[in-house]
Amino acid sequence: MATAWTLPDHPKLPKGKKVAVVVLDGWGEANPDEYNCIHVAQTPVMDSLKNGAPEKWRLVKAHGTAVGLPSDDDMGNSEVGHNALGAGRIFAQGAKLVDSALASGKIFDGEGFKYIKESFDNGTLHLIGLLSDGGVHSRLDQVQLLLKGASERGAKRIRVHILTDGRDVLDGSSVGFVETLENDLSQLREKGVDARIASGGGRMYVTMDRYENDWSVVKRGWDAQVLGEAPHKFKNAVEAVKTLRAEPGANDQYLPPFVIVDESGSAVGPIVDGDAVVTFNFRADRMTMLAKALEYADFDKFDRVRVPKIRYAGMLQYDGELLLPKRYLVSPPEIDRTSGEYLVKNGVRTFACRHGHTDGTSFVDKVIIETVKFGHVTFFWNGNRSGYFDESKEEYVEVPSDSGITFNVKPKMKAVEIAEKARDALLSGKFDQVRVNLPNGDMVGHTGDIEATVVACKAADEAVKIILDAVEQVGGIYLVTADHGNAEDMVKRNKAGKPLLDKSGAIQILTSHTLQPVPVAIGGPGLHPGVKFRSDVETPGLANVAATVMNLHGFEAPADYEPTLIEVADN
Ligand SMILES: O=C(O)[C@@H](CO)OP(=O)(O)O
Ligand SMILES: [Mn+2]
Ligand SMILES: [Mn+2]
């Protein structure tokens, strides 16, 4: 059935207000203590918004089932968070879809698996991805099931190319994950399968760059995985990770690339003609660049030196617009009819081709973001779809991130630049919605550097001020929220909430996201004075934000969207 794109008018709220939607990345709400960097930092603007509670500030869930993850033990992340914010509904996400496909065995009956299986007789099966149980990009138990299933279905030679984590899990935990995997592989060897780890490296330094921020990261991985070349060579991966971690300043996220070599010093698992490759991350953003390098005949981002003729499948299809990769083991969530698409289609006077047209005021969307988060308020927001819905109505602007540094070195990142671009967009009068992601709390929180994260939170707060001042000037409306927690808790805790200590008595730094709720604050001179948060939406989550934003633009949300957070009192 054709989608009815015309949104009903909101019965009480006017159209034509400028709306700033601000997403603070990694900004949750938690008890105030010394490990809560948002609490420690001076954040007068966000504090003042909170003073508007409960009418203008409230908390929503940003993790677990509220954002389509398998369980409420799963922390939130940018992909599922922005998907929910933009789509207004909760879709079963990659992690969950892969779980079901493995549990039912359907993954092995699908087109993607059949395709790679054709290489099993004469070629090697290579698995490439993030090795941890973080559940943000991948999960070790899924890799284990994939190994088991593939070997039972005829894979005789398997090579695993690992990327160590330390970002979604504790730094240092990579050794344990590698030991677990080695143990599984040795059991496969006992069954006659020639299965080994072939190469590795830290996720942030090898392979898992995103949004084309730094292709040299992908090249380092390519050299190790495909060409079998790396500056470090080891006989086994446990020794590799232990040795490389012992270097001063080393950590799991940034381990240099290594290859495993045999007695004669040759790499045990370069990728060659006739092989099959599966990238086992279910999350898209940090696998897209490698997928392009593996799949595109025309490719000029770095010299691939040798381009093996392989059968390649992603765990999921990572980009629904580019249809990348062409083959995949599990179908991605079908995130359709996102709020961005609706809003664009409801402001355009002449609307082209397939969805009919509506009359109305010009509705233009402006999105501003640093490179490291570029796709968050575009690609993720639009349901893992790159590109514009209507280029004449949307403008996506990128502020280049610093590259080649860890963000604790420059914790202010480009927050002010982003905010100034947002301000200018609001003041220009050309845009109805200005959507922004401020990455500081998250990107610096991931470094585990508490002092730097405090600076980061202050910087994000100052950026919010610049945007809210502009909203004030144009008589607009703001909605400030976050995609998941991170900076509000920087320590690993026991069940009772007490910080955990390591063997040396130091606290265990938490580099990952959290299970905490996030704030939603609304306000601005353009907000109808009767608007307040409803008290009858039980356990609201990020998916309730889309309908809310549609209301702020003067529209009712589609009926199947999660309910709006706001109501309008008559007085
Ligand atoms: O950096 C990333 O890839 C993830 C953590 O793995 O963070 P976010 O979801 O905030 O992008
Ligand atoms: Mn995020
Ligand atoms: Mn993050």
Automatic annotation (TrEMBL):
Give the keywords, sorted.
Cytoplasm, Glycolysis, Isomerase, Manganese, Metal-binding
Q: Does the keyword Glycoprotein apply?
A: no
| Localization | Cytoplasm
Pfam families in the record, alphabetically? iPGM_N, Metalloenzyme
Q: Which InterPro entries match?
A: Alkaline_phosphatase_core_sf, BPG-indep_PGM_N, Metalloenzyme, PGAM_B_sf, Pgm_bpd_ind
Which co-factor is required?
Answer: Mn(2+)
The EC number on file is: 5.4.2.12
Q: Which residues are the active-site ones?
A: S78
Molecular-function GO term, any one: phosphoglycerate mutase activity
Biological process GO terms, please? Answer: glucose catabolic process; glycolytic process; response to blue light; response to carbon dioxide; stomatal movement
Query: What range(s) does the BPG-independent PGAM N-terminal domain occupy?
Result: 98-319
What is said about its interaction partners and assembly? Monomer.
Q: Which NCBIfam families match?
A: pgm_bpd_ind
- This chain belongs to which protein, by name? phosphoglycerate mutase (2,3-diphosphoglycerate-independent)
